[in-house]
Design goal:
Number of helices of chain B: 2
Distance between the termini of chain B: 48 Å
Structural class of chain A: mainly beta
Number of helices of chain A: 0
Shape of chain A: globular
Largest interface: A-B, 21 and 15 residues
Mean pLDDT of chain B: 66
Oligomer: heterodimer
Largest sheet of chain A: 4 strands, antiparallel
Number of domains of chain A: 1
Order of helices and strands of chain A: EEEEEEEEEEEEEE
Radius of gyration of chain A: 16 Å
CATH superfamily of chain A: TolB, C-terminal domain
Helix content of chain B: 25-40%
Strand content of chain A: over 45%
Helix content of chain A: under 10%
Order of helices and strands of chain B: HHE
Low-confidence stretches of chain B: 1-15
Low-confidence stretches of chain A: none
Radius of gyration of chain B: 23 Å
Chain lengths: ~180, ~70
C-alpha cells in the first residue's frame, strides 16, 4: 500500500496454470502491475511490460517502485519512477540476478536506509537461497543464506521496532534480528 | 480406517503387540512435575540452533548483521 491508501499489486500467472493453488484455468489478463484506488474503485494498469511480475515495494520516499520479474529468464529486479498520476515510468534494471548466482527474487521490502531486501532462491547454487540485500544504487551488499528457498518475509518486532526479519521459507519460519529497521507500511 | 485401529491391527499382524505398547509408552511425554534426566550440555555432538549464515559482499552490510 502507498501512503495515499492506493493498493498496488502484481498479477503473474504461475498458479492459475496448476492445481496447487486455486482452480486451474487459462489466464484471462496480461501479466500487469495494477494500482487500485479504494476511494474511487478505479483499477488501472501501472506497468505492463513484464514477463512474470512478482514482488514489489516502494522506496522509503515512495518516489520509486521496485518490482521483480521472475520468468527466469529474465530474472531481474526493475525500478520505476512513480508518477503523481499513478503511472510507473522510466523502468530500468536495478539488479540482474544472474550476476549474483541466478535464481529469482520474490518478496521485497526496503529498510529506513533505502536498501532493498529481497527473498529468493531457486538457483543452481543453493547458497542463493535466503534474503539478499542491495544498496539503493543496486550494489549487492550481502545475503542471509538459508538452507531452503525463501518466498516471503517482513520486518517486525515489538513496539514498532521493525528490526526483526520474519522469513517464510519452504518448510520453516525464520526470525533474525538485523541492524536496521524496515519501513512501516 | 481410524488411525488407532490401523496401528492396533499392524501390531497384531506383526506379533509384536508388547513391543509396540512399550514403544508407545516410551514416546509419551513425561507427566507434569516430572524431573527430566540430566543432560550433558558439554557434549560436542549436541545439536543447537545454528547461527545465521551471512555472506558479506560489501562492507556496508556488516552493520546490518551486528544483531544476528
Amino acid at each position: 500500500m502507498k501512503s495515499d491508501d492506493t493498493i498496488w499489486f502484481t498479477d503473474p500467472i504461475y498458479r492459475i496454470e496448476g492445481d496447487n493453488e486455486g482452480v486451474k484455468a487459462t489466464s484471462e489478463l496480461p501479466r500487469n502491475v495494477y494500482r487500485l484506488d479504494p476511494k474511487s474503485g478505479q483499477l488501472t494498469v501501472a506497468a505492463g511490460d513484464f514477463t512474470e511480475p512478482n514482488g514489489l515495494c516502494f522506496s522509503p520516499d515512495e518516489k520509486k517502485m521496485y518490482i521483480s520479474d521472475t520468468a527466469n529468464p529474465p530474472s531481474v529486479i526493475r525500478v520505476f519512477d512513480v508518477g503523481d498520476d499513478g503511472k510507473l515510468t522510466n523502468g530500468r534494471i536495478f539488479h540482474d540476478l544472474k550476476d549474483t548466482g541466478g535464481g529469482v527474487a520474490d518478496d521485497m521490502r526496503v529498510d529506513v536506509d533505502g536498501n532493498l531486501w529481497s527473498a529468493g532462491g531457486w538457483a543452481p547454487n543453493k547458497n542463493f537461497n535466503g534474503v539478499s540485500v542491495y544498496a539503493p544504487d543496486g550494489t549487492p551488499l550481502g545475503r542471509i543464506v538459508l538452507p531452503e528457498v525463501a518466498g516471503n518475509f517482513c520486518f517486525g518486532g515489538l513496539d514498532h521496532h521493525q528490526s526483526t526479519l520474519y522469513i517464510c521459507a519452504s518448510h520453516s519460519l525464520y526470525a533474525y534480528d538485523v541492524g536496521t529497521r524496515g519501513v512501516e507500511l | 480406517m481410524h488411525r488407532r485401529g490401523f496401528l492396533r491391527g499392524a501390531a497384531l499382524t506383526a506379533g509384536s503387540g508388547f513391543a509396540t505398547a512399550a514403544l508407545a509408552q516410551s514416546q509419551m511425554p513425561d507427566p507434569p512435575g516430572t524431573t527430566p534426566p540430566p543432560r550433558n550440555w558439554d557434549d560436542p555432538t549436541l545439536v543447537v540452533y545454528p547461527d545465521p549464515a551471512m555472506e558479506v559482499f560489501d562492507a556496508r552490510f556488516k552493520k546490518y548483521t551486528a544483531w544476528s
